[in-house]
Amino acid sequence: MAKKTKATSAEEKLRALYDLQLIDSRIDRLRVVRGELPLEVEDLEDELAGLESRLERLKAEAEGVTDRIRERKESIIDSGAMIKRFEEQQNSVRNNREFESLNKEIEYQSLEIQLSEKRIREAEAQMEQKAEIIQEVQTKFDIRAEDLKTKRAELDEIIAETRAEEEILNGMSGEMAEKIDDRLLQAYLRIRGGAKNGMAVVPIERDASAGSYIKIPPQRILDVSARKRIIVDEHSGRILVDEELAQEEADKMEKSVQKQLSKTKAKA
């Protein structure tokens, strides 16, 4: 692609700057249409990731409790088997000392069974609590997942509707920027970056820069209308263009954008 010819006269520079402003402002409006959706989608994705991690941790903890219950139940079975064996041995003891010794073993294993049963009851209570928490977190996860699905669908729909136009506008913005010398382009970008609404080049409306209520001196208005040099509003810091030039470029750029959009639709 041939390199764009730089604007040379002050009027050419003003027109190129305002054209760039018109295109960039249109891109800004497209992005405003998306509103907070991209951030909402990102926040929901982060929240879901956190909820998923919590669910995994809770389920791992629940599995640990289940393992402890199983171990305690196995311990009860083992203790029961030992008690049965000790009771059988008591039938063949030779003296009271052996009988008492086995009796102590039986008592010990009985206490072990009681302790295991207590630990099982405690673990089962923990399981109930964890099951409730897991259900609450899972419900919240499901709701947020549905919210994310809806928000993503909304965002995808908006992006799909505006993608073609934004691609065209981005291309046009790049072409416009190539017509402006680097020093002036950097000044434009600096002013645009510091403005809340992204307006770096504005027309004079009602004897003030657009969006401002501070009157511009009549001589300054005449200077702007003469288009002999780049003039910056001393109050807003924005580059000024006269209303007639602004209208001419707005009409021209609208026709150019619509023409590009028509070509894109025709190809689709």
Could you explain how this protein is built, in words?
The protein is mainly α and 268 residues long. The protein has two domains: 1-33 and 181-268, no CATH class; 35-162, Helix Hairpins. The chain contains six helices and three strands. The chain has helices spanning 10-34, 37-90, 96-178, 182-194, 218-226, 243-267, and strands at residues 201-205, 208-209, 239-241. Strands 2-1-3 form a three-stranded mixed beta sheet. Helix 1 runs antiparallel to helix 3 and helix 1 (10-34) crosses helix 6. The longest helix is centred in the middle third of the chain and has 83 residues, at 96-178. The two termini are 24 Å apart. The model has no long low-confidence stretch (mean pLDDT 90).
Q: Mind describing the biggest β-sheet?
A: 3 strands, mixed
Low-pLDDT stretches are none
Order of helices and strands: HHHHEEHEH
Structural class: mainly alpha
Q: What is the count of DSSP helices, taking H or I runs of 4+ residues? A: 6
Q: Provide mean pLDDT, rounded.
A: 90
Q: Return the CATH class of the largest domain.
A: Mainly Alpha
Helix content: over 70%
Shape: rod-shaped
**From the alpha-carbon coordinates, what is the Rg to the nearest angstrom?**
39 Å
Strands ordered across the widest β-sheet = 2-1-3
* Strand segment tally: 3
**Annotated CATH topology of the largest domain:** Helix Hairpins
Number of domains: 2
